[in-house]
Design brief:
Layout lengths: L1 E4 L3 E3 L5 E8 L8 E6 L5 E8 L4 E4 L7 E6 L4 E6 L8 E9 L2 E5 L3 E5 L2
Parallel strand pairs: 2-11
Antiparallel strand pairs: 1-3, 3-8, 4-5, 4-9, 5-6, 7-8, 9-10, 9-11
Length: about 120
């Protein structure tokens, strides 16, 4: 099983960013994909999850209205798009596959930097 994320991104405040997470080694539609981020010096912050089977989503209240999760089953790729970026969104963004009592697989992380 692998979750491979897209590369680092640098954005200006107010812009949007889209990060991908390509899954392999398992049936993509059989597991949710969660998105979690970690800002510098902070703990992990859960952003929400998507069910790739039907595209159903659940967003953390903090991000509602500003984040969109999508999943392309033809390429086994999940996406997170975050809009109206601000400096506080500077973080490493991870996709993760829920398993057991936590996550059994993680992407390698994508650094998103928001700076003018």
């Amino acid at each position: 099983v692998q979750l491979v994320q897209s590369g680092a991104e640098l954005r200006n405040p107010g812009a949007s960013v889209k990060v991908s997470c390509k899954a392999s080694g398992y049936t993509f539609t059989s597991y949710y994909i969660d998105w979690v981020r970690q800002a510098p010096g902070q703990g992990l912050e859960w952003m929400g999850r998507i069910d790739p089977e039907d595209g159903g989503t659940k967003y953390a209240q903090k991000f509602q209205g500003r984040v969109t999760f999508t999943a392309d089953t033809s390429t086994s790729t999940a996406y997170v798009e975050l809009s109206s970026l601000r400096s506080e969104d500077t973080a490493v963004y991870y996709c993760a596959r829920p398993g057991g009592w936590g996550y059994d697989y993680w992407g390698q992380g994508t650094q998103v930097t928001v700076s003018s």
